[in-house]
Amino acid sequence: MVSIKEFNDDLSDIIDEDDKNEDYLFDRNKIINHKFNQSRSSSSSSSSDKYNVNKQEWVNDLLALSSLLSHHINSSDFISSESRLIHSKFQRLFHFLITDVYNEPTTHALGDHISNLAEVDDALINLNRNATLKFRNYKQFREQRLASSNERQDTSFTSEHIYNRWTKMRQTISSAIIRRDPLFRSKSSLRYFVHWLLHSSFFKWFISIIICLDVVSVAITSEYNSLDDSKSLVYNIAVFINRSILFIYLFEIIFKWIENFTNFWYSSANILEFILTIISLSNLISEIYIDTKNNTSLEINKKFHNNNQKETDTLQRIRFSQNVSFIAKPKCPIKVFKSSKYIIGDKLLLHENFHDRVKPLENVAKDCRVHLYIKGSYYQLKDPAQQVLVSEADIVIGHGFQFEFRDEKNALLCNKICLSKNPMDIPEVKCFLQGAINRGLTWSRLNADVLSDGTYASNMGGYQALKTDIQTRCQNEKLKRQLLRVLRKMHEEEKKK
């Protein structure tokens, strides 16, 4: 049976046990004279040295390859099935090298369908069953040539090209976000730090401990509010703790405003915290006010203070119980987006903070007379810490989704291929994409079928921790489409085509 081996890059020092038999080898000079002299003589004297060196290297590779082929046999001899297979492969190989490297036109067919073997007889060989064939991996060489000559063919990109393109895309997305958001321009480092701090487990436990201390201090100040000398020390310590904690609450609210002022008001817990802090501040102001007033208004102010104190105690208990339940079972932030008739398709699973960014898209789709068809959204990873593709980075944290466009009759208007080429040629698609970008969403032709808020691009340093946290909290949630793999579905559709 024909054996196939790989040989080293040093083509001139190859040794084979059968090389001693001169009848077993190809005649190198014959190949040089018959096949390559014409193309070498056609090169102009003004060609660069680099081109000549590369050209000579290709010739040397072919010569070394031919020197390792088995002996030539007559066409009438028996050729085994294995030899026919290798013979067919090398017909394609030599045809490619002769045609593409030296740009020589040819009229004969490829592979098993070559009609005139005399034209390529010196570059082809029929192998017998005991022959040994050694060759280089010319598939990689071919892909590199195509990548350098035609960068538009994504299948021929090397890993370096892909990395460079994704780097440019991330820089473009980040620049777009910075241009749209003035807060990123002036206080980007502060916002990143605040986001990391608020979502860290340390801060959550710290706030929970503060809440427990606050509940104890409120209980003490409510129970022991006399000026008895035996109780004044405990009372004063409790008051000091209560007032110190009040400022911690105030700074927590300010931090949440810095992170996202609009999303702050979409959370009932944040609203409860805000009301509690305002009442506590009014309580503190009333105490200071009582100390500065005379005795005639003292009773009225005390009644106001006591009423506020009761409300504060009630809200403190509610907040305490809420945080205990939050610590016991972290809440999954992924929710089903309730869409209208203009957002159709798969269930849209998004982060709760991303819902208000997607809601305006319904009006955009209505104005542009298109339907936004959802092709995929958040899905659960087997391992919350596993790496994902850049195209899925925002999807697995609920800050992005895959889509395509349908017209008003639900007929396909523009799919992924269309979006990656010339989507702006379709007025409805152009209208929607511009409307989405104007409302702060991110879209790029390099990731053409995904709309997101650019969370990954704007916070690549803290992305892994954020993804792990969200995926962990939602690990046991029964989400209807949590097992959906976006790429798998896309590949299946491409195979059908």
Q: Based on CA inertia axes, which overall geometry fits?
A: elongated
What is the residue-mean pLDDT, rounded to a whole number?
A: 66
| Highest-level CATH class of the largest domain | Alpha Beta
Number of strands: 10
Helical content, roughly? 55-70%
Structural class: alpha+beta
CATH topology of the largest domain: Muramoyl-pentapeptide Carboxypeptidase, domain 2
CATH architecture heading of the largest domain:
2-Layer Sandwich
Please give the alpha-carbon distance between the first and last residues. 39 Å
Radius of gyration: 36 Å
Q: Mind describing the biggest β-sheet? A: 6 strands, mixed
Number of domains: 4
Main attributes?
6-stranded mixed β-sheet, Four Helix Bundle (Hemerythrin (Met), subunit A), two-stranded parallel ribbon, disordered N terminus, 497 residues, single chain, 56% helix, elongated, 4 domains, 17 helices, alpha+beta
